[in-house]
From TrEMBL:
Residues 11-272 form the NAD-dependent epimerase/dehydratase domain. InterPro entries: Epimerase_deHydtase, NAD(P)-bd_dom_sf. Keywords: NAD. This is Protein CapI.
Length: 354
């Protein structure tokens, strides 16, 4: 692998007002001397835009942060950003997220996840025009949803993933295929990361733990799918960001094969906790931490506010990451326990919502 020092570099992070993007940008700006971060985000209303604005406000305290409001599906804007800033590392986290939303709103997934990603690939390709060094590493978000209804666990990147069960998963698998072709044709060093359920403070309100909290606080009933028998590889956001940072600094090598033609400098990794938790246990710990933080009263009747229901379309019963390749190549394994992570979320929630 080729080492990349992020100090003194210009790094483009798409989806910079998003949950992972904003935390990643903060780490780069805090930890790497004279690193510049260009952030782009369309600030859409898929979830409460105030949370995105709060994340951005924190980033705007860094003089080396530049924000561009716009969509990666806007090709001329992407071309302008690459021409103006000449990023050497690109992290594409901008995407329309959510499995269930893709069932009713397919258009936005095609626009952001396919056309948008294609625009990023094209810009990376043309960054080498005229003999320029161009993009040294493209890192992009894939998803554990590509594993679909695979029965074999833990999920390995060696598994066949040709049977997505949602449009969202299909777009993420498409990203991996498009990137492989571009990596092969234009020698773009690139790494795809299959994220497994990410949670933490200032997270996405559409995620189960956040939605549960909102409902419990209002005294509403929460639905626990598959009668509580779902298992999720919950990964705390700081652990994800640490993993992404390590990956950014090691690009796949550009090497030629026996035929003298370039082998695609392309890698895919799972990035998750590799320790799936039962959804019912997760909700129990969440409830305890919400009481501890003062979000819920001490005598909260949890049993009266939960309903066990069947599985829903597009969902899978278990997500479980085999992360041995990530550990081998980057010496990294997530460290944060579920209780610690949910405690930090509950404390943030109490402070943010009062």
């Amino acid at each position: 692998m080729t080492a990349i020092d992020l100090s003194h570099r210009t790094i483009l992070i798409t989806g910079a007002a998003g949950f992972i993007g904003s935390n990643l940008a903060k780490r780069v700006l805090s930890d790497f001397k004279d690193a510049k971060v260009i952030g782009i985000d369309n600030m859409n209303h898929y979830y409460d835009v105030h949370i995105k604005e709060a994340r951005l406000k924190e980033l705007e305290e860094f003089p080396a942060f530049t924000f561009v409001k716009g969509s990666i599906a806007d090709r001329s804007l992407i071309e302008k950003i690459f021409a103006d800033y000449e990023p050497s590392v690109v992290v594409n986290l901008a995407a329309q997220a959510g499995v269930r939303y893709s069932i009713t709103n397919p258009d936005v997934y095609i626009e952001s996840n396919l056309i948008g990603f294609y625009n990023i690939l094209e810009a990376c390709r043309h960054s080498y025009d005229g003999g320029k060094t161009g993009v040294e590493h493209l890192v992009y978000a894939s998803s554990s949803s590509v594993y679909g209804s695979n029965k074999k666990v833990p999920y390995s990147t060696d598994d066949k993933v040709d049977n997505p069960v949602s449009l969202y998963a299909a777009t993420k698998k498409s990203n991996e295929l498009l990137d492989h072709a571009y990596s092969k044709l234009y020698n773009i060093p690139s790494t795809g990361l299959r994220f497994f359920t990410v949670y933490g403070p200032a997270g996405r309100p559409d995620m189960a733990y956040f939605g549960f909290t909102n409902k419990l606080r209002k005294g509403e009933t929460i639905k626990i799918f598959n009668y509580g028998n779902c298992k999720r590889d919950f990964t705390y956001v700081d652990d994800i960001v640490e993993g992404v940072l390590r990956v950014m600094q090691k690009a796949p090598d550009r090497v030629n094969g026996e035929d003298g033609l370039p082998l695609p400098p392309y890698r895919i990794y799972n990035i998750g906790n590799s320790h799936p938790e039962n959804l019912l246990d997760f909700v129990t710990i969440l409830q305890e931490e919400l009481i501890r933080a003062g979000v819920l009263p001490e005598d909260y009747d949890f049993e009266a506010h939960k309903e066990l229901v069947p599985m829903q379309p597009g969902d899978v019963p278990v997500t479980y990451a085999d992360t041995t390749a990530l550990e081998r190549d980057f010496g990294y394994k997530p460290q944060t326990s579920l209780r610690t992570g949910l405690r930090r979320f509950a404390e943030w929630y109490k402070e943010y919502y009062g």
